[in-house]
Amino acid sequence: MPKRTLEEGDEGKRVYNTDGTEVGRIVGVTDDGRGYVEPDPTLAETIKAKLGWGEVTADAHPLDEGSIEEITDDEVHLRGNL
After folding, report:
1. Residues 50-68: b if buried by 16+ CB within 10 A, e if exposed
2. H or E element: which one contains 45?
3. The pLDDT of residue 16 is above 90
4. Of 3, 4, 13, 57, whose CB count within 10 A is highest?
5. Quick one: DSSP state of residue 40?
6. How far does CA 15 lie from the centroid of its chain?
């Protein structure tokens, strides 16, 4: 069964729509598994997210478990489009 719940360790992963288009990176994950996707993160924001220091900005889009098709070691694939 594919992993569909985000965890802190998923911060920094690339996020893809169902058509394979990259839409951003996970910049934050709350304790209840809600993730936030930054649509166009800077290099510094990407590094901070990978280190667990990411900040959720006003531009970040929330994701919940129902939006996620699969989480791999490097990527998050959505069920639809962001």
Report:
1. beeebebeeebeebeeebb
2. helix 43-50
3. yes
4. 13
5. S
6. 5
- Amino acid at the residue 45: E
Tokens of 69: 């098709």
Token reading at 30: 């709350």
- For the chain, domains (ranges, CATH) are 8-78 (2.30.30)
Which amino acid is residue 49, in one-letter code? A
**CA 16 remoteness from chain centre:** 9
Count of CB atoms situated within 10 Å of the CB of 39:
15
At 55-72, the pLDDT tens digits run 787 888 898 778 999 999
| Residues 6+ positions from 29 with CB-CB distance below 8 Å | 6, 7, 8, 10, 11, 35, 36
